[in-house]
Design goal:
alpha/beta, Alpha/beta knot, 7-stranded parallel sheet, 11% strand
Length: 244
């Protein structure tokens, strides 16, 4: 398997099962297993909530116990917000999914356990896990909706397995301005501002020009930006000439 299995243990509401499926598919995960869903299976409310992720529900494995659901897995992590009195490594979602990625790359099978909405996983479920995932939430309101917890974990999986830049720019059909285009813009402004007497007094003129050039270099301009700024200056000159 090239991805972890997400195991929903005794999920209660069909809507949350569907929401979990949708959250998984948002991040490219499609291996779902369920343990003894409260309202039986299949569940039309789950199908409706899953929207375009219904295939996950069609292919989901159905098991009677947690032990059966993770029987073929070599590394199991359990999501829980509360200390359970069990000695286990406690990982953040980011660390857990990084470990999951490494283990799956080495040929292991990984499962992530999610508990029922009302009370979460029981100790008997967590005892079968090798580690715990603990989300750093508000301790005064630590409960996460099932689909929310699935979404958060799936997001961290996606971050670990895809080279996603921390920042990018949507160019909206524009291109970055070249150095010569910015240079011509700077010269245009310098010339017109010089004519208007902006660089005064003369003893400070050179420093002011350098600061203005530095301003242009700090601004990441597109060709459209450069054209607009040329137009702004041309229009200001025309306006002044009309006033004279």
């Amino acid at each position: 398997m090239s991805q972890p299995v997400f195991v929903l243990v005794r999920p209660q509401m069909g809507e949350n099962i569907g929401g979990a499926a949708r959250a998984m598919w948002n991040f490219g995960l499609d291996r779902m297993r369920m343990v003894d869903p409260r309202d039986g299976w299949p569940n039309q409310k789950a199908v409706a909530m899953a929207s375009g992720a219904g295939r996950l529900l069609d292919e989901a494995g159905l098991f009677g116990t947690t032990a059966e659901a993770v029987g073929d897995c070599t590394w199991v992590v359990a999501t829980t917000a509360r200390a359970r009195g069990l000695t286990k490594p406690v990982l953040t979602p980011e660390t857990a999914m990084a470990e999951a990625r490494a283990r799956i790359a080495a040929g292991e099978k990984v499962a992530v356990l999610f508990g029922p909405e009302r009370a979460g996983l029981e100790n008997d479920d967590i005892a079968r896990a090798n580690a715990i995932i603990n989300v750093p939430v508000n301790p005064e309101f630590a409960s996460l909706n099932l689909a929310q917890c699935v979404l958060l974990t799936a997001y961290e999986w996606r971050r670990q397995t895809n080279d996603v830049p921390g920042e990018r720019v949507e160019m909206a059909g524009a291109d970055w301005a070249s150095g010569i285009e910015v240079e011509k813009l700077a010269a245009h402004y310098e010339e017109r501002l010089d004519q208007a007497g902006f660089f005064f007094p003369e003893t400070k003129a050179e420093g002011m020009k350098i600061n203005l050039r530095n301003l242009w270099s700090r601004m990441r301009l597109t060709r459209a930006d450069v054209q607009m700024l040329h137009g702004v200056m041309r229009q200001m000159v025309r306006w002044k000439e009309r006033g004279e």
